[in-house]
Predict the 3D structure of the following.
Amino acid sequence: MSHDAPNRLDANVAGLFTPFTIGHVTLPNRFVMPGMQRGWCRDGAPLPELADYYRRRVEGGVAMVISESCAVNHPSATAQPGACKLNPATLDGWSRCVDSVMAAGGQMLLQLWHEGALRNDADGRTLSPSGLGYRGFAQGRAATLDELAELRDAYVASALLARRAGATGVEVHAAHGYMLDQFLWAETNIRNDGYGGAAIEDRVRFPAEIVAAIRQACGSDFLISLRFSQWKEHDYAARVAETPDELRAMTRILREAGADMLHASSRRFWVPEWPDSNRSLAGWTRALSELPTITVGSVGLDKDVMESFTTEGEARGTVSASVSELSRRLAEGEFDLVSVGRSLIGDPDWVAKVRSGDHAAIRPFRKDDLGVVEWES
Ligand SMILES: Cc1cc2nc3c(=O)[nH]c(=O)nc-3n(C[C@H](O)[C@H](O)[C@H](O)COP(=O)(O)O)c2cc1C
């Protein structure tokens, strides 16, 4: 994608501001804020500033907010003291976040997360598919079948709490190298009990069982998004689906399990996923799954998310080029919704300014905006 494309937004931005209906929910436009850990939790509960921060993005035009990763209610989920959690003790805090987003007219999903083998194992309680975080990194041990049943129940218990908090739904985090991604990825899932190994149909079984169990417990009017990625924090070249056929098999199983939408996480939304086609991962996902799909990755910025953590200063704004390219891909049917991450940290009014064409007024994201928080999910 060219970063110096002329400003042609006025002509083509309209599609991004059309409504979109998923299940019982109609969003007024296509913009979503994805999960981003900010460090504004104490003992797992969100602080009031997190609710204010989410509300502010809705006031600035975002249609749906996805919370930062919330550890599910199981002792093996995370050992990070600063992580957000979704358990009975944190329910009131999450209810306040949901209320504040909805009072401003937004929808909200709470993101359900488990670190798997990437969890700090000082207490010896780390569980994962096969005790592997990535090649050459072993930690904790493989969960037994009984433990898998317990973990499934923990996802359901946290989803039920999200429903009690009034959330529109949940997003099951199966991306970026964490627990459910460890199931999806052949390198970290060498189980031979029907939940792992060479076949994607086996590796997707546990994430799909979680989706199905949440669907059964929470009913049909509760949205379930599943977020997956090919890339891992430790391996940008990794792939859970080597071929379009594998992606089709994986996403169809998730659809049959009851997922309402898929969030195809990439570092750059315009990068082709396979040769001989310009289609992004989101484009392939939408075409093969026939599910509503969210695209993501460096919207409005010239550095991807991982570069942002390692290089100082401001990412150069590329709003005009990004929005032109998004509009084009939306019109071609590549995705339904778009997540805007760091750009929305940098400027809560990013969506409103895109709508009005006032790009010069957008304040670009800079690394300092993250404060002392390290990216952990
Ligand atoms: C500070 C920070 C924290 C993040 N935390 C999460 C998280 O909790 N869950 C998640 O799925 N992704 C997380 N991500 C990834 C973002 O959701 C998003 O996919 C990524 O930033 C790419 O989008 P962008 O290029 O628009 O920023 C985080 C990213 C950042 C910058």
Observations:
- Residues 145-164 form the longest helix (20 residues).
- The domain at 9-370 is CATH 3.20.20.70 (TIM Barrel).
- The longest strand covers residues 223-232.
- Residues 34-37, 68-69, 111, 173, 175, 227, 265, 296-299, 305, 340-343, 370, 375, 377 surround flavin mononucleotide (CB under 6 Å).
